[in-house]
From TrEMBL:
TM segment ranges: none
Protein's recorded name: Cactin-like
Pfam families: CactinC_cactus (PF09732)
Organism, as annotated: Populus euphratica (Euphrates poplar)
Taxonomy, superkingdom: Eukaryota
Gene encoding the protein: LOC105133135
Amino acid sequence: MEEIGKVKKRREQTALEKRQHEEERELLARKRARAEFQDWQKKEDCAIPQFVANDDERKNQIQEPAEPEPPTLLEKFNLNKATGAMKEGDGVIGSVAEVNLDSQVEWLCDKYQPRKPKYVNAFHTGYEWNKYNRTHYDHENPPPKIVRGYKFNIFYPDMINRTETPTYTCEDDGSNGETCIIRFHAGSPYEDIAFRIVKKDWDVSHKKRIQEHV
């Protein structure tokens, strides 16, 4: 009778452990499904509408994707119990082998964040042989070099409204009468960008015009 009682007790213990393992697997499955749903919901929230009222409203709508929290010690322990004991030839897939799928997808909320455009600018210097310089200087003793021209290459690859042509304006540089401010505007998601240049009548013909890449 004592042996029968031990066998019965072992069966009850085995059934209890099996039921606990099933509950733990079900809990892990629910956590995984909830995490996948939250990840999908974040991607949906990051979608940028085609028309936005203003930049401030768009900033409020944009949310950076949150980093997943690492599992706690209790969750790791429960996972080990649910998956069973390790056998010979088994291995653990660690974080080194994990593929960051988010890095393979271009987030719309990152693409349309307000930012300064990239640019490659240059200026050209040379001699100006006006009447005064021809009188006081020669080719062996040339006058000081001055800025003869600028070249602005500004890139706008992610413009929301591609029918809008980037523009530029020249503004006064405060009390400095020798320089002015040239400001470039293209629209969302790019912020205006400005540079200080020498104030004079520049040749902005077709061959020497400012280049803006969209």
